[in-house]
Hints:
It is a single chain. The chain is of the alpha/beta class and 361 residues long. The chain has helices at 4-36, 39-46, 51-58, 62-74, 95-100, 109-119, 122-131, 142-164, 169-176, 192-200, 213-223, 263-273, 297-313, 329-338, and strands spanning 79-80, 89-90, 182-186, 205-210, 232-236, 248-254, 274-285, 343-346, 354-360. Strands 5-4-3-6-7-9-8 form a seven-stranded mixed sheet, sandwiched between helices. Strands 1-2 form a two-stranded antiparallel sheet. Strand 6, helix 12 (263-273) and strand 7 form a beta-alpha-beta unit. Helix 1 packs across helix 6 (109-119) and helix 8 (142-164) packs parallel to helix 10. The radius of gyration is 23 Å and the shape is globular. The termini are far apart. The mean pLDDT is 95.
Amino acid sequence: xxxxxxxxxxxxxxxxxxxxxxxxAFDLFSVYLGDVFGLYRVLAEKGPLxxxxxxxxxxxxxxxxxxxxxxxAASDLLxxxxxxxxxxxxLPEGHDEALLDTSSLNYIAPxxxxxxxxxxxxxxxxxxxxSGGGVPYAxxxxxxxxxxxxxxxxxxxxxxxxEWLPAVPELHERLLxxxxxxxxxxxxxxxxxxxxxxxxxxxxxxxxIDSDRASIxxxxxxxxxxxxxxxxxxHERDAADAGLxxxxxxxxxxxxxxxxxxxxxxLRAARDLLADGGIVFVGDERxxxxxxxxxxxxxxxxxxxxxxxxxxVGMIGENAAGTGTVMRPETVRRYADEAGFTRSEVLPIEHxxxxxxxxxx
Length: 361
């Protein structure tokens, strides 16, 4: 039993923690504003700037620009430029990469957009908590798929074709070999994974498949000018379409299985897409092997996204799986077994956020 002193210390620690969480939440939401309105980009290109200059360049109201700038400087996200009678603000060196470099593995700004998107349908989530239903993916708006695509883009550009796929010799060799491999990138989202696979392997043909129209439209836009337009195509289509059966040597599913209401059915459809000798390559969140309390910061982040987004979208439909973000390896193995795969293995690819699986029919 805790003593009165221990109880007081725990209380005070919790109060301080939640207070600082509120401060951090507003920092994150202010980064969202800077990202959406392009304020960091303007400061990087034209700064240091006054609030009036920023407002004029970014097309926002000066009074809001002033409050945002002052908050950013107060939170040490921006800094005051020295000298001069007017208060001018600038982006500190180093912050530009984290907030603006869309190809950097340190690009963190999209996290703000993803968090804001996750809490957007809050009333619908309250209803789902009471009813046991779900919240449709579309209710999260464009920020969700835009934020997710921006956050994963550096991973695909820097790691997918350069480290992750080459780390699996069987897969790497097939993607380099003749006849050219046919790949179905299931739940391709905005298509960055499909494009980077084609860039890394100059023989392959990639079909990006997704049922979300907005994502497929953006994928087609992203494809333009990449140099792989002749080997990548995007389709608003159900992967279970019988017309696709047996067409592909490799099926990929990246950061999507845990969101799906019927993951076993999706994996079964992926298996049906395979030609003889084909394999399925899955990349998803690196949740801890088993539940721990307290858990790591990454696990806490996953639970946050799970409560507000991944679980609700995975609860849509009768007898939905409701997997959630925290999908452990034993769950993937169980889903693969139920889908008819004879072998599923966790691959020895190290990454802080992702775990990879190879599934064989």
